[in-house]
Amino acid sequence: MKIFLDTANVEHIREANSWGVVDGVTTNPTLIAREGRNFEEVVREICEIVDGPISAEVVSEDAEGMVKEARELSKIHKNVVIKIPMTPEGLKATRTLKDEDIKTNVTLVFSSNQVLLAAKAGATFVSPFIGRLDDQGQVGMEVIRETVTILETYDFDTQVIVASVRHPIHVLESALAGAHIATVPFDVLKKMARHSLTDVGIRKFLEDYKKIPK
Ligand code: G3P
Asked: What is the rounded CA–CA span in Å between residue 204 and residue 207?
């Protein structure tokens, strides 16, 4: 399973990328605003750090405006993927961008029917937000399991990015469900890497190593 980092914080991206486990990055207007920097500048810097798909989101709500923004954003770097919201206008924009060979990530997806339509419209990636579904008392991972079945059954090229990931179990369940990608906040990635028994084991090994006669 591929792991994308879900942040616009370039220091976190640089650190996580150095671990050798990051395959791409996803951003959205909230994550970009959190950094207090110019949008295009941040996206460009992220593209220079991670050699993989870098999602940048449009803010227009009509297809024409989305496509216009997408054409500009795609000029930033060859790896830029355009995040498009899952609406009828977003589907129109996705189809147009597919015909122009501009990669898309259809986002703010909350149902398997939305996944099906995004895939039919030619989305490169589709992003169901499982954490927000969980927050509503639904089982977000159920949408992921249905998504994997739909994409595999009909041999869609579209890849699912599990988004709105809140903890390591979301990532584990995504992998077990056969998801192509999970986009993971840096804090969650750090939790995935650590285990208290590993820390205890290292301390014990180092204490015992010191007892070895020199
Ligand atoms: O990639 C989408 C993600 O950033 C949304 O996460 O926690 O705001 O639902 P969250």
From this structure: 5
Instruction: Output the CA–CA distances (angstroms, integers) from residue 140 to 17, 53, 176, in the order listed.
Output: 27, 24, 14
Selecting among 68, 75, 83, 92, the annotated active-site residue is: 83
Question: What does the pLDDT read at residue 49?
Answer: 98
Work out the number of other CB atoms within 10 angstroms of the CB of residue 164: 22
Q: pLDDT confidence of 133, banded at 50, 70, 90?
A: very high
Residues 155, 152: Cα–Cα separation, whole Å:
5
**Which pTM does this prediction carry?**
0.97
Distance separating alpha carbons of residues 49 and 191, to the nearest angstrom: 22
Does the Cβ of 131 fall within 6 Å of ligand 1? yes
Tell me the CATH architecture of domain 2-210. Answer: Alpha-Beta Barrel (3.20)
